[in-house]
Queue: 2 jobs
Job 1
Amino acid sequence: MNSFLTKLFEAWTNADDLSCVEARFAAIYTDPVRVNGTDMSLADLAARARALHEAFSGLQAEVLQLVDGKDSVAVAFVIHGWHTGAYHSPIGTIPPTGSKVQIRSIDVLTLSDGKISGICVIADDLGTLRQLGWQP
């Protein structure tokens, strides 16, 4: 894995001093960054990271596949962790289950001047919900 992706995944999975996550993101993302067609500020991204850490502990990233282009990178990955807090999901809040979870995603990152300026996220939300016991 290249050093840029290492820094990116460490910024998202590092639970040390979450009050500094916005500063960590400033070295990686433009402000704003376009996520699935919507501009998000670094503060918005930092809030997402804090919510992730409130819901899951012991987070570790595993890169499954990487396609590296000139101005874009596609990365398929899994975030491993434990569901130890309330998870605010697309279908509502799921109380902690203590379950081990694998959060799967494919991100296509657009790079501008060495920073991520756009992200197309394709996340397996249904797979995550199923691991937490949700039934349709």
Job 2
Amino acid sequence: MARNNKLLLMKKGDASGQPDAGDLEYGELAINYHTSSKKVYFKDSGDNVRELIDSVQIQTKADTAQSNAIADATALAIALG
């Protein structure tokens, strides 16, 4: 298997969101450093742009999921009487 040690970076400083798959090469990272959208993106082998998230975003998503689960359980309990 051939090894390619080249790391490609694309920088972005606006709030427009993630790059398109056509904007990225395989193995290239796109870094958006804008205050409202601090994310790192990469293109997977299926030509999908994926994002890496940090621990703060993980905790926020977990808290949201937990709140939604509690709300759903409460609504179910009320519905069942």
